[in-house]
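User: I'm designing a mutation panel for DUF4437 domain-containing protein and want to avoid disrupting the core. Could you give me a predicted structure to guide residue selection? Please restate the sequence first so the numbering is unambiguous.

Assistant: Good idea. Sequence first, for numbering, then the predicted structure tokens:
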Amino acid sequence: MRPHVETIQEKDYIWHRAELPGGEGRASERRLSVDEEDGSSSLRVDFHTEWGRGPGVHHADTEYYVLEGEMRYGDQVLGKGGYVHAPKGVPAKALRFTEGSRILHYREYGDAGFDAVDSASDPGWPDARGEITVRASAESDWLAVPNAGPMPGLFVKYLHVDPVSGFYTRLVYAQEGWADHRLAHHPCYEEAYTLDGKMAYNFGDLDAGTYFFRPARVKHGHFVAMEGGTTWLMRSDGELENWYTQNEWVRWGGDAVNYAPDGGRMTWSYSSHDIAGGGSRRTDGDLRVLRTALNFQKERGAPDTDYVQHGTGSDQSLVAMATAFDLARLGQGHGPDHSPDHGRETAPGTASDPGHHRHGHGHGQSHESGAAEASAHSHAALGWPAPKTLEHPDERIDDHAHNWGVGRPWKRGVDRPLPPILSTLPVRSRSLGRWDGDGM
């Protein structure tokens, strides 16, 4: 699996000798993100000399995108914006890069292995599918994204789309002032390298050379395109369905055992509101744009809730906990002797304490079954679905059961939308990375 990587500036990565077997010349790579289980990698590669290798078969679905310089694939010469996709097991033509070329290089579902062949017309692997894709993206037009979200101003150039898996690579351009005020998560992973411009959002600012890899179902959002707009190369391992969240809240905590002041024991708990520091880092201008996005969404009649900057509204977890305590107190008595003083604060272990049983289970109900019944009643009363109803049928039994953040195929109208998962603080840049509590 790949870790959650957010707002890392590529300059904070160290250089390695490029792993490009079978080639002649010198090149270095920065490893933006790597899956050590299957070899999938996203890399920034610089060529210090002219580099090339003959025809052959890649061990992974492989992509090359030219940032600067020149790439020659067979007899085709591709400059800035040039793109080649070579499916795993499909023979590819000879490939060359001029000295000083800078590229993005991706490998998916396999390692850097490369088997030389006499000709690109040689037969490929028996289970190989697809064909080589070659594009000069600078010569193609930007297409307006239909249903771009809350506002117009988002454009795309598709580089490659897998008709079977839905995996796709595209260039995305957001005009200055384009915004989306909601948090979103997806059934697939999403990664992007910023080619130019600047975008502000909850995990930090995306400027040229900034990269993220976000596993499936991790919430993110509050995008605002800054001066001049911004352009990314983006990839996803499936169809990018947007599931939106508004006014989010998260509460977590624990008991500090040996690191409290004066060596004492300290009980503590934080929520997304606490972490946000009581306010948002958004400027007044950002907030105006985000509210404009909300108004546009409402004018279209699309489902949404009133916009409250995340981390600054009412902490619904506190309301839910207070409700749960009330339900627990009310549930202690089954008869007319139930005490009406359920609203008073009581000491732990007393007769009025929610954790203290004031009655037996002579009616045949065990502690375990009683707890389960109480839990079910509490979920229903609070308006929460039972946790098991949120699980995807394949959640814990498929080949990727160890990794909730791996992309899974999802079909509208057939599969239940998956709830978001909580990511730990992501890997982030020494110089530019930032995580902000308004977007957990």
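For picking mutation sites, this is relevant: The helical segments are 272-275, 284-299, 316-330, 367-382. Residues 334-372 have pLDDT under 50 and may be disordered.
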